[in-house]
Amino acid sequence: MLKKIEKIGNMTLVLALVLPGLFFPNMQVKGQTLADVRRQLAEKEAELEESKEKEKLTQEEIDKITNSITENTNTINRLSDEMITLQSEITQAEKDIEDKDKEIKEIINFLQVSSGESAYLEYAFGAKDFTDFIYRMAISEQLSSYNEELVDEYNTLIESNKKKKKEKEEKQEELKKTQIELANQKNKLGEELTTTSAASISLEKDIITVKADIKKLEDQKCGEDEEIEDCYNRTQTLPVGTAFYRPIISGRVTSEFGSRCYYIYEYNKETGKNEKVYRCDFHGAIDMAQSGSAVPVYAAAPGIVVGHTDRGECGGNMVYIIHNINGKKYTSMYAHLRTIMVRDDQVVTMDTQIGTMGGNPSIEWWDGCSTGQHVHFALANGHYKKDYYYWSQFEANMFNPRIMLNAPALGGSFNNRFRKY
């Protein structure tokens, strides 16, 4: 879902970049200024506040549904207990009626084949004890008109109990259906909450990055309305290059730029274990691998380090370098590094070692997007941290590194940084 959000953001960015050129072809595009970056920060903070409020409201809805599910469960359990008691009452009532009906029929049959008061006396004297004798005497006095009222009373009780049981069963079934509907609503809201939380995390990361960049611009005494490119040019000179070279001396190409599917181990919070899952995504780089514990990774061309990431959840340690290659702006990115050996704002050459290769899940355990040791090499148009600030914008400007970088075909090996294939 987060990928979808980022893709929508990328489409918006592309439209924002393309449409002005379609309608105003002669208009000069103004570069970013410190004031522009501050406005972007304010917009991101407003988006984050809105996202957090949505998270809060969604969680409140989930809590309400959870309470309803609990109440329904308690009602279903109570009805189940009532039905057990009711069934017991029905069973006892049926037994009482059966006994009473049998006894009445026996007496009636006796009276039908007998005559006179001697029959009543014979029935009465057949009692087992005095209580039963009194009872039989009373019954005998009433049997001449047949005690249909007693039988009707018991039959009415049975019918009433059966009706009650049916109503409870119907109510229980209705509550079970409601439980399923509530559970589905809860799951849907849970998915929305996960998406919103992911968006909030992304916004928080962007805000941290932009705040750091604003401080850097302030430290460099950039004017509020001064173009950032001009400000940097006053304090730094971007070296000129003519080509990109492979970032490692020897190795093999293990993954291409574009859509791909693969297996990866991911941590499952529910089971507490790393589980093998099949994933498909868009790979915005070329991967190059080499064995060894300290494989050096070099800058692909002369440039200036504009930023880095420490222990990113997806990418691990990363370095970003801006370049001027044949008069055009580019940014290179190196991910899954075990160590970083350069600092922000450092001028580098193609011979500058920026770090060592990482990406081994058993060593870089925090890096959740790597299946083995390699360097992830990406190229984007424009200068990251100057022309644009957010990761989604960097992704929108990425292109296949093979356009600028010569490398053997997938699976092919190389043993130097310069040979053409």
Describe this structure in words.
This protein is α+β, with helices and mostly antiparallel strands. 49% of the residues lie in helices and 21% in strands. Strands 1, 2, 5, 6, 7, 8, 9, 10, 11, 12, 13 and 14 form a twelve-stranded mixed β-sheet that branches. Strands 3-4 form a two-stranded antiparallel sheet. Strand 7 (303-312) and strand 8 (316-325) form a beta hairpin.
Shape: elongated
Order of helices and strands: HHHHHHEEEEEEEEEEEEHEE
Summarize model confidence as the mean pLDDT: 79
Q: State the CATH architecture of the largest domain.
A: Distorted Sandwich
CATH topology descriptor of the largest domain:
Glucose Permease (Domain IIA)
* Main sheet record: 12 strands, mixed
Specify the CATH class of the largest domain: Mainly Beta
Class per helix and strand makeup: alpha+beta
CATH superfamily of the largest domain, by name, is: Glucose Permease (Domain IIA)
Question: Which bin fits the share of residues in helices?
Answer: 40-55%
- Distance from N terminus to C terminus (CA atoms, Å) equals 39 Å
List the uncertain runs.
1-29
Provide the gyration radius in Å. 41 Å
How many E-type strands? Answer: 14
How many DSSP helices? 7
Can you tell me the number of structural domains?
Answer: 2
Range of strand content: 15-25%
By oligomeric state, this entry counts as single chain
Descriptive tags:
21% strand; 421 residues; 49% helix; Glucose Permease (Domain IIA); twelve-stranded mixed sheet; 14 strands; disordered N terminus; elongated; two-stranded antiparallel ribbon; single chain; alpha+beta; 2 domains
